[in-house]
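Entry 14: structure prediction run for Trk system potassium uptake protein TrkA. Input pasted below.
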Amino acid sequence: MRIAIAGAGNVGRSIAQELIDNGHQVMLIERQPKMLRPDRVPAADWVLADACELASLEEANLAGCEVVVAATGDDKVNLVVSLLAKTEFAVPRVVARVNRAENEWLFTEQWGVDVAVSKPRVMAALVEEAVTVGDLVRLMTFRQGEANLVEITLPPTAPYVGQPIHTVPIPRDAALVAILRGKRVLVPSPDDPIEAGDELIFVCTAAVEDEVRAVILGPGSVERNRERA
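Run finished. Output tokens:
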């Protein structure tokens, strides 16, 4: 894919190098001359320009990109870049960095954002995922489809422990996409049993999260979650 990244700081450069290592063509857009460091990511195309200016983005051929990543340290800039990428250049996928947690509510499809990555949210989710057994943890939100990536670590008391996946009545608008068992990543198949300690990874809409929780952990888990909230 051809991918444009606005912001060539540590975050932008790290993303660029990872994508290049995975075989993608990357363009880094940076407005500050002192931040232009082609030697740090020599395989990237470096562009000195203001990613908030329409003319600069036209000159950089943003319309030819499959993905735009707004990765600057300024939330206002990331929102403007996202909006321009989606509305002016019809970029199929826009990913935006959220620097301040209080601004997270702004990073929606109305601003052209398909996926918002909030460092505070991700860090909190990773902490919860590491220590929480017997509850649903939201790991990531996919804004465009209003879907979430969620994780449930099965306690021994979960209703379907030891039973094959095809017996689990997974709600509509939810899909079990992976099972993490120890150091293994398993692709679920209908006859695979689920075990205590398994980390079940679902993609589901926010509207059915309680249904997923109730099925996997039992009906009482929903009420317990509401009491904690």
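Notes: The chain has two domains: 2-118, 132-227. Will compare against the previous run tomorrow.
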